[in-house]
Protein 1
Amino acid sequence: MDAGGARSQLGWEPSPEQGWVAPHIAEEFPGLGLAWVEVDGRLGRTTEPVLQRLRDLSDRFYGSHAIHMRERPIPWAYRVFFRQIGLDPDRTRTPIEQLALDRLHAGAFASRGMPVDALTIATVETGVALRAFDAAKLSGRLCIRDSAPGESLPGKPGKLAQGTLTIADERAPLELLFGPSTADGGLESDTARIAVVAVQVKGVPQAAIDEALWIACAAIQA
Amino acid sequence: MIYTRFGLMPDLLDREMLTTLRVGGDERLARAELRRQIGRLEHQLSRLAAEAFPRVAIDTGVAGHFAEPRVAGLAELEQVRDALADRIAAARVALETQGELETSNRELLRRMLAAPAEHKWLRISRADVGEPGCGHWHSRPRLGPLGMLMGWWRVKVSSGCPLSARLAAVER
C-alpha cells in the first residue's frame, strides 16, 4: 500500500506535527527532526488484513534485499547517523536492519501484535524509524534533546548519563533516540490513542516520513 | 532562550554540556567535515560488503564509543573515520586477494577441462571460481576402476544445488 492508498483508507489527511530539536543538537545534526501523528488505537491482536499485509511483505523480502539494503539511501542515512552518534550499526542495529535480520532468522515478519506490526509494515516499506507512545501520557510537543543530570527513562532503573540523546516531551525523556529499546512507549491495555513518531535524519526526505506515518496509521486503524 | 512552553526544563539551559559543545566555529566545522567523511566512507564500505557477498566476508564493524546515543566529539569522530578507512582498505585487499585466487582457479579449471587425466581427482567448486550457486567440476575416471586402469578420465559437472523439496513428479 502506498501513501495514497493509506490516505484513502484513513479517510483523512493526517498532517504530522513537527517536533523540535534542541538548538545545539540541531546545529550539530542538520536534517535531524521528529514528526508524529496521533491516531485511535489499542494494544492487542493484529487484525487479519494487517497479518495478510505482513505475510505479503515477507514474501517480497529476500536475503538479497537485506544484503543490498545498506546501499539504499534511507537505510544508509540511518547507518551513517548511528556512526555519528557513537553507535555501531552492526551491533546496535538500525530499525530497518533489525527487522531485516529478524525476517531472515524467523523466515517471516512475525506478528507481535498491534501497534508493533503496523510500525513494522511502515518501516519495511519506507525504511523510516518509527516509535509508538501512549498519546494520553504525552505532555506538550515532542522533541529530541540531550538528557539533563539526574534524568532517567520511564520504567528503567538508574539515571541517564548526561548528554544522552533522547526523545522527550515537555516534561521528561520518554525513550532513547536510538539504541536498545528500554521502554514500551507507555502503551498499556487501557491505551486508547497512540502517537506514532518518526525520527528523521539527514538524507531521509520529508515525503518518506509522511508516507511512513500514513502507512502506520492506516495499519493501526485497519 | 526558553525551549519549552511551560519552562519545565530550566536545567537544560545552564548545563556545562552545552557550553562544551558550543565551542569555536572551527571545531564545529571540523566535526561537520568528519561527519561528511564518515557518510562517504560508510557508503563505500557498504558497497564493498555487498559486492563481496558471499565470496568474502567483509568486517564492517567499527566499535561504537557509547552504549547510548550521544553527540560524538572530534576525537571520537576521528576514530570512527579512521576505523572505517581501515576497514575499506582491508576489504579492498581481501577482495583483490580473492580475485587473484579465483582467476588462478579459473585457469586451473580450463586446464583440467582440456586434460582431465593430468588432473586426476581434482575437484573445483563454483565458489572457487567466484560463481554463485552450488556445483563443482570433478575429474573422475569413466567406468570406475576400469577407467582408472585404462586412463579414461573425464570432468564430471555436478547437477547444482539440491532441491529444497521433492519434485512434484516423484509424488505421482
Protein 2
Amino acid sequence: MLDSYREIETPEGVELLLRPAGPAPRALAWLADVFIRSIVYMMVGMFFSVFGRFGTGVIMIVIFLLEWFYPVLFEIYWQGETPGKRWMGLRVLNDNGTPVSWGPSLIRNLLRAVDFLPLFYGFGLISMFMNRDFKRLGDLAAGTIVTYKDNLMHTSVVPQTTASTPPLALKLEEQRAIINFAERSQRLTDVRAAELADILAPVTGAHGFASIQRLYQMANWFLGNR
Amino acid sequence: MNQQDFEQRNEPVWKELDAVVTALGKKVTPASITLSAKFPQLYRQVCHDLAIARERQYTTHVIDRLNLLMMQGHQYLYSARAGNITRIMHFLGGGFPAIIRREWRYFWLAFVLFYLPAIIMGLAVYYWPQMIYTLLDSNTVLQMDWMYSPEAPHIGRERGADDDMLMFGHYIQNNIGIGFRTFASGILFGIGSIFFLLFNGLFIGAIAGYLTQRGYIDTFWSFVIGHGAFELTAIVFSGMAGLKLGFALLAPGRKTRSRALVDAAQVSIKIMYGVIGMLVIAAFLEAFWSSIKLISPNIKYIVGAGLWALVIVYFLFFGRAQDAD
C-alpha cells in the first residue's frame, strides 16, 4: 500500500485505511472557515451596534464564542467537519478512526493558540512535517487525525476487452500490478501509459499501444472475463 | 470465485448498507429506526467482504469502495452518545476537585509560580512605588490612579447596566482567553504556562502593591476580592493544566512521548472544563457584582471572604469519595 495511508485496526478485526490530509487542503479549509466567521461577525456587528455599549458587550461575547468554539461545535455535531472542511472533503477523527468526541475536539482547538505561533500556523506546520500523519500540535495532544472523507483515489475500472491468456504463469502480486495498471492507465497520458507498458515488453511481446492492449486483455483474463 | 462473481453476488448487501448508512446520517424517523435494526448485520457482512477482497487481492476499486462503506458504518457504530447531564453533575459534584487534588504537584507548582512573583512584586512596589514603572508606562499608571482614586468624580456614581454588559463581554473575551493561552502554551515543554503564570503574577502583584500604597484600599480591594476567588484560582488551574502537558513531553516515563502527551491532555482538558466554568462565574461577578457602588466595602469584604471560603472548601472536601479512582 502507499505510504500516506494510515491503517487502523477495528474491533471487527478488519483494517480500515485512512488518508491523512496535508497542510494545503487544511489551510484552505481554515481560510474558508475564517471567511464564514468574518461574515457572521459583520452581520452580528451591524445588528448589535444599534444597542450601543450593551451591544458591544454582546458582540465581544459572540466573537469570543465563535473564535474558540466554532470548530469544536461543528466537529462534534457535524461528524468531524466544519463548513470549511466539508468544502475540502476533510474530516477530523480520533486516532482509532471513531468520530471525534468533546475532549479531543476541545484540546485540538484550544491548542490552535500555540499552533498559530509565531505567525500563520508556523509551529503547526513544523509539527505537521515532523510526523507521518500531518498532525499539528493540537492533533498530537488530542490524539486526532484529519483525513479525507473518502479514499476513492481510483474510480476508473478496467476497460472491457476480449480476455487473453498471459504467456506465462504470474504470481498474485504480479497479476495485481497488471490489473492496477489497467485501472490507472486511463488517467495517464497515452505516451506515459505506453512507456510503462513497454517495461513489460518481454511479457507482452509488443510495443507501444499494442503493448497496452495486451495488458488490458490480460487484466480482463485475471478478472475472470473469460 | 472470481472478482466479478463476487461483486455481483454481494452487490445487494453493499447497496443496502449504503442506503441504511445514508438514512441513519439524517434525521431520526420511524423508517430510519426500522433500518437501524438491520445495520449491525449488514455492517458485519461488509467487514467480512472487505477482509475477503483484501485476502484475494481483488482490484483497488472494489477494495476502496468496501473500505469507504465500512468507514461510514464504523463512524455510525462508534459515534459517541450524547454527553449526558449526569456526567456533568458527577464532574461538578466531586470529579473536578478530585482531579485537582490528584494532580496536587502541578497545582502547587503553578500556585507558587503565580503567587510568589505576585507577593514579591507587590511588596517591592509597596515600599518602592517607582518600581511600578518597570512593568507599566506612566499613562497606564495615571489611568489606574484615576480609576480607583476615592476623590475621582465617577466614584460613588452607579454605572449603567449597558456598561456592565460591555465589561462582561470584555472580561469573558480577555480573561478566558488568558486562561486558554496559559493552558495551550504549556505544550511548549511547559515554558508558555510558566511565562503566563509569572507574567500575570508580577502584573497583578504590582498593581495591588501600587494601589495599596496610594491608600486606595476600599476602592481596590473591595472590588477585586469577590471575583478574585474564582479568577485567580482559575488562572492557577489553567497553568497547572498546561504544566501537566509540558511535563508529559519532558518526562514521559515508560510511555512514548506522544502517548504520554495524549494521556496528560485527557486529564488537563477536564481541568479546563472547570476553568471555563470558573472564569464565566468570575466575569459575571466582576461585571455585575464587584462594580455595584451602592454596596458598602464592608459587605463586599464579607461576601468576598465567603466566596474564597467556598472555593477552598469545594476543592479541599468535595468528591472525597472519588479520590480513589
